[in-house]
Design goal:
The chain has about 260 residues and is mainly alpha-helical. It is built from twelve helices and two strands; from the N terminus they run βαβααααααααααα. It has a two-stranded antiparallel sheet. α5 packs across α7. About 25% of the residues are buried.
């Protein structure tokens, strides 16, 4: 800002107003004034520069995830390369590796974002349900409903699950917590909450894959949820009791609102 400071720094006489405000009187060394400003800037700028750097990195990372998402929606996941992603995102290949170690890493990030964004949408409705069986059914019903209304989303989520089995970690954790509570209320059937989680996730991914590939253009949602509930320990009558008490899913609520408008 000031360039190279001269070794000859002028002394300036302060006016009356400045003397009144600051308490300084007489002359003031301009060198001291300049160095004081430079010192303040040196303390502030690194902090701001770090913030700008973090913001830029976050934008670039989001740009790469969006590019990968777009590619996965248009072509088979296994056919996408790092070169495809950087070309779609409009960044250098080296930039990709600043944010991700591999294509599998960005694949996991896309899967996480797709599942997490929808799972968050479910939380108000899920949180209002006291019974774990109802929460499990509500989540499965909502994901099935979302898939039927958006087959491309279903296709991408199902295909990414194979390449990123840990995708949707938060959604899996919530499901696992519900299954632990669910299992406590049932007689010991020898099936752990971990195994029940794999059963639920496995059935749901098969349903999403079938919808995404066009093999299931319509499906009886209640039959799907009943099958899942029975697979994890409920009998037919208990599963039916859960289904009749299910609240509307976010997708169904939007459909109802659109029909009335």
């Amino acid at each position: 800002m000031f360039g190279v400071l001269s070794t000859r720094c002028p002394r300036v006489r302060l006016n009356a107003a400045h003397r009144f405000v600051t308490g300084h009187s007489g002359q003031y060394d301009l060198c001291k004034m300049q160095f004081k400003v430079v010192d303040t800037m040196a303390k502030i700028n690194p902090i701001r520069r770090a913030e700008i750097g973090r913001e830029k990195r976050a934008r670039t990372r989001a740009q790469l995830i969006a590019a990968a998402h777009s590619l996965f929606a248009r072509q088979a996941v296994e056919s996408v390369t790092v070169d495809d992603v950087v070309k779609e995102a409009g960044v250098a290949k080296g930039t990709f590796y600043v944010h991700f170690d591999s294509l599998e890493a960005v694949t996991a990030a896309v899967a996480e974002e797709l599942v997490q964004s929808f799972d968050e949408l479910l939380q108000p409705g899920r949180g209002s349900l006291a019974e774990p069986a109802l929460r499990i059914a509500f989540g499965c019903y909502s994901f099935t409903d979302k898939a039927l209304n958006d087959p491309r989303w279903a296709s991408v989520v199902a295909r990414l699950a194979a390449g990123a089995p840990k995708g949707g970690e938060m959604a899996r954790r919530r499901l696992f917590e519900d299954l632990q509570q669910f299992s406590k209320a049932l007689p010991d059937d020898g099936v752990s909450a971990e195994l029940k989680q794999e059963i639920v996730v496995g059935i749901m991914l098969q349903i999403l894959r079938a919808i995404g590939e066009g093999r299931l253009s319509s499906i009886n949602r209640e039959a799907v949820i009943s099958a899942i509930l029975r697979a994890i320990g409920l009998n037919a009558q208990e599963a039916k009791s859960v289904l009749v008490r299910l609240p509307a899913t976010p997708t169904l609520e939007k459909s109802s609102q659109s029909a009335t408008n």
